[in-house]
Amino acid sequence: MKKLSVNFLVIAAFSLLLLAFVTIKDGGIKGKVSPDSGAVQVVAVAGTDTIKGDLSSGSFTINNVKPGTYTVWVKAKPPYKDKSVENVAVVDSTVTDVGEIKLEQ
């Protein structure tokens, strides 16, 4: 009987531990580039990880971003210059809005 109780407790603890990892979800980054026709690509960089974003009419979203601190790079079309936003914090299951990124000529 005692062995059965110990086995049950071990299995229950292991199951709870697995559920704790299942609930962690990646976040995202969103924003807008101005002028809306000035950007070619938007990426988020953290260390050696680079994640490409979807860009449409100046608005962008970067999905499946692991929690951490990122630099968002906007690759611009000439005559505009590339621009970056540093220290963008992404937390679990949250989409971080960087607002409007204004490109300069």
From TrEMBL:
<protein>
    <submittedName>
        <fullName>Carboxypeptidase regulatory-like domain-containing protein</fullName>
    </submittedName>
</protein>
<dbReference type="InterPro" id="IPR013784">
    <property type="entry name" value="Carb-bd-like_fold"/>
</dbReference>
